[in-house]
Amino acid sequence: MTGLTTQSLSNLSKMKMNMNWFTWALLSAFFAGLTAVLAKVGVAHVNSNLATAIRTVVILIFAWSVALFTNSQPISTIGGRTWVFLILSGIATGLSWLCYFRALQLGEASRVAPVDKLSVVIAIALAAIFLHEHLTWHHWVGGLLIFTGAVVLAYA
After folding, report:
1. CA 102 to chain CA centroid, nearest Å
2. CA 140 to chain CA centroid, nearest Å
3. Which pTM was predicted?
4. What is the mean pLDDT of residues 18-46?
5. Which of 52, 145, 156, 54 is nearest to 107 (CA)?
6. For 126, how many CA atoms within 13 A lie in the half-sphere containing its CB?
7. pLDDT at residue 142, as a whole number
């Protein structure tokens, strides 16, 4: 059993090195899509805030397990500015999840999920404004298509 676990971890490590940002982004999209369907079923007979809290505990345990298992950086080396922005990001994530679960409780997952993905358009705009990222016509066209698709699916 130990050999199998060691081999599996070795394969996971090799796979991690070979995966680029696009592969990780596709996996993120897949799991986000899966999340919408699972959450819709999970929130059906429970208060949406309680459902968010339960989900958050699961994520907390899972994320700390992954971080502790794979961490090569001591927490003490994280700077103050980084802490501030990670905390603000956590608050934004929590607010997003509370709103998302309430929307799922009230609406169809096939409509809620596309509207939630308007976060892509918002992220593009905020990245240009605050991070001074250069936007090309690709960003504008892609953002417009995402926006248009979300509106079409929300009102279908």
Report:
1. 17
2. 22
3. 0.77
4. 90
5. 156
6. 6
7. 97
